[in-house]
Each structure stands twice: as structure tokens, then as C-alpha cells.
Design a protein that fits this description.
- About 40% of the residues lie in helices and about 5% in strands.
- It is mainly alpha-helical and about 150 residues long.
- The chain has a two-stranded antiparallel ribbon with strand order 1-2.
- About 20% of the residues are buried.
- A hairpin with an 8-residue loop joins strand 1 and strand 2.
- It has 5 helices and 2 strands; from the N terminus they run H-H-E-E-H-H-H.
Length: about 150
């Protein structure tokens, strides 16, 4: 875990009740869904304000962000080949496959980040460096998470 990630984890843990409630993380997820495709959702792109503004979260890095709609509102065509860029710990599975990323992939990255915030040891692949092994571990993680959801209806 990087120093910044450790710091963010301690900040979130210390202020979870006051400043970074689940509702705040849901608002962040809704922003991710409504905005551009960020393609690099990770703790170091978010800054939590201090003091009375502690409920404000700023996004400070848009290096891999991409529009999914052109200015005329038409969908931007998908690229044939997409480089595997971003932080391996948080990148969505589609990035490992060199496929075009979408807003749902940003939510997948957000999920990994949130899991690590509230349970620092949650990401089994955090110390793994081999792309194929990280991908396999994420597949297991997501299939286990899906199988543990209890649907009432």
C-alpha cells in the first residue's frame, strides 16, 4: 500500500462517521456515472477538504479521462486497441483485457477503492504485479461478490 493510500485510509477511517459516510461515497459514485469516463479511479485522484468543508471531495487528476459523447451528443466510437494504463490495483477487468473502458468500469474501480478504504486488506491482488494473475483474482473477487448478494423480490 502506498503512503498516499495509507494516508487516505487513515483519513477515511478517522472521519468515516463525520465526513465520509456511505451517502458521500454513493454521491461520488453517482458523479462518476454522470461524468466523463475517468479510466483511472484511485485514491490519489481524490482530495477531501478539511475543516467545515470536510464533506467536499475534489477530483484533481483527469490524465486518462475521456469523453464518451462528442459535443453533438453522438457516442464517441470505441477504439480498436486500448493500452493497459492506470494503477493495476484499481483498474477494471476490461483494462486488463485492453478493451475500451466505460462508466461502469469506473464504478468497478471505485468499488475496489471503497473496499480498500473500509477494509485495507480486502484486495487480495494488492501486492501482485503480474497482469494475468491480478485479472484472475479480480474475476474471483467479482464472482464471489455477486454470489453473496441476497436479492429480495
Amino acid at each position: 500500500m502506498s503512503q498516499l493510500t495509507a494516508l487516505m485510509c487513515s483519513v477515511v477511517t478517522a472521519y468515516a462517521v463525520f465526513c465520509f459516510a456511505i451517502s458521500r461515497s454513493v454521491e461520488l459514485a453517482l458523479f462518476i456515472v454522470g461524468g466523463p469516463i475517468f479510466s483511472d479511479v484511485k485514491p490519489s485522484v481524490f482530495v477531501i477538504a478539511a475543516g467545515q468543508d470536510c464533506k467536499k471531495i475534489y477530483i484533481v487528476h483527469f490524465g486518462l479521462a475521456r469523453r464518451y459523447r462528442a459535443y453533438d451528443r453522438a457516442l464517441v466510437p470505441q477504439r480498436a486497441a486500448v493500452p493497459c494504463l492506470g494503477s493495476m490495483r484499481y483498474m477494471p477487468r476490461r483494462s486488463h483485457e485492453h478493451l475500451e473502458r466505460s462508466r461502469k468500469d469506473d464504478l468497478e474501480s471505485w468499488l475496489y477503492m471503497l473496499c480498500e478504504f473500509f477494509q485495507p486488506e480486502a484486495l487480495a491482488w494488492a501486492s501482485e504485479s503480474k497482469n494475468s494473475e491480478v485479472y484472475r483474482m479480480k474475476e474471483v473477487f467479482m464472482s464471489e461478490a455477486a454470489s453473496n448478494i441476497e436479492w429480495n423480490g
